[in-house]
Amino acid sequence: MKNSTINLLKFYISVFFVHDIYLSNTVVELSFMKPGNNGSDVIIQEQNSFFEAVASVNTFEFLEQLFDNQTVDVPVIATAVANASASSIAVGLNNSTPIETGNGADVIKGIGKAESIATAIASAKAEAIIAAINNSNVDVSAAAIAFAEAIANAGAVGINNSSTISTGNGDDLVVGEATAIGIAEALVEASANILPFNDASSTVTSNTFIETLAITEINALAIGIRGGEYNLGNGDDIIRASATGAGINIGVQDVVIYGGKGNDTFDLQSGTGEVIGGKGDDLLILEGSITDYNFSGLDLNLGVNIQNSNNSTDLFVSGVEEFKFVADSGITYEYADLVFS
Questions:
Q1: How many Cβ atoms are within 10 Å of 17's Cβ, its own excluded?
Q2: Nearest Cα residue to 23 out of 80, 88, 81, 79
Q3: pLDDT by residue (tens digit) across 153-199?
Q4: Across-strand partners of 66?
Q5: I want to staple 159 with a disulfide (CB 3.0 to 4.6 A). Which of 125, 143, 176, 205 is the partner?
Q6: Beta strands in 277-312 (DSSP E)
């Protein structure tokens, strides 16, 4: 831009930088135990974990300068980088020693809830006011670069068992519930501006560059019941696994379950392990539809292998007479209805 009169006669540089990091972590544990060997025993343990991380970066680069009979390159660069990472882990019932509840209608329940929130905000602003007089040649560039990365990790387990849980005689209930939630948000803003002045003998060449990048990553894993051996004993028992959240949800992982005598219900959602139904009319419940699974095996007593690569299910099941799949509402399948592949 040409102007016959130039009033800009001062040199001034201003840099303003703000970097805020906010971290918040909360863990709440609830426990209720009513143990005994001949009554209705109740063991309930719950853990809730919450973690929040916020990173905010604001960068402002400003240059105001007069060039008199000079040939120069003038860079003005503003860079803002914000990284926020939040991780939370929750385990409801964490068991490493044998549990035996004995007779009675017993309840064993573990609840794990984990939530992580990560927010990254990056703002970069570059500005220049340049004046050139008396045969000056000024090449000015203004660059604004903003990068924000937010990572949220959440892991939850309802029951984590490295030993045995035996519920004895009675209509018993074993429940593992896990919820893992991850929320990640990355916000970026960048601007670059140049205001040039020059007399008739001078030139000011202006170049602006803007680059922004926002990255979010969520890693969430919920497992209802993980590990160990479960002996349900005599009675119409129920073992239930539930896993929900924003990422990978697995009902059971590496478990061995013995139903014993009685009409037992194995409501497992998905996962890996072995189920031995025992005597009685037993029921296995899995998520999805029967068409989502592959079945291979021999017969009711020798067992059937149930696999679904979409939800990481690989179960070996024997002594179970009936099967339900949540998406096949109202339909109960018998062993003979399973399609072997």
A1: 12
A2: 88
A3: 999 999 999 999 999 999 999 999 999 999 999 999 999 999 999 99
A4: 131
A5: 176
A6: 283-286, 294-297, 304-308
C-alpha of 276 from chain center: 33
Neighbours of 10 (CB within 10 A): 10
Instruction: Concatenate the DSSP letters of all residues of 118-159 into one string.
Output: EEEEEEEEEEEEEEEESS-EEEEEEEEEEEEEEEEEEEEEEE
pTM above 0.90, yes or no: no
**Helix, coil or strand: residue 290:** helix
Tokens, residue 339:
């399609």
Location of structure tokens 């009936």: 322
Question: Residue 113 — very low, low, confident or very high, per pLDDT cuts 50/70/90?
Answer: very high
Using CA atoms, how far apart are residues 233 and 23, in angstroms rounded to an integer? 47
* Side chain identity at residue 258, one-letter code: Y
Cβ-Cβ contacts under 8 Å for 147 (sequence gap 6 or more): 79, 80, 81, 82, 122, 188, 212, 213, 214
